[in-house]
Amino acid sequence: MVEVNYLINEVRKKKELSGLDDSVILISLEKQIRKGKFNLANLKKREIKNLVKLTRGELRIIAGSFNLTTTSRDINVDKAFKSDLLNLHISTRERVSSYPKLCEFIKNLKVKSILDLGCGLNPIALANADYDYYASDINKENINLIERFFKYNNFKGEAFIFDLRNIKMEKLPSTDLCLLLKVLDVVEKRGHKLAEEIVQSINSKYFLVSFSTKTLSGKSMNHPQRGWIEQMLSRLGYSYEIIKEKNEIFYFFEKTHPVNAL
Question: Domain 78-254 falls in which CATH fold?
Answer without folding.
Answer: Rossmann fold (3.40.50)
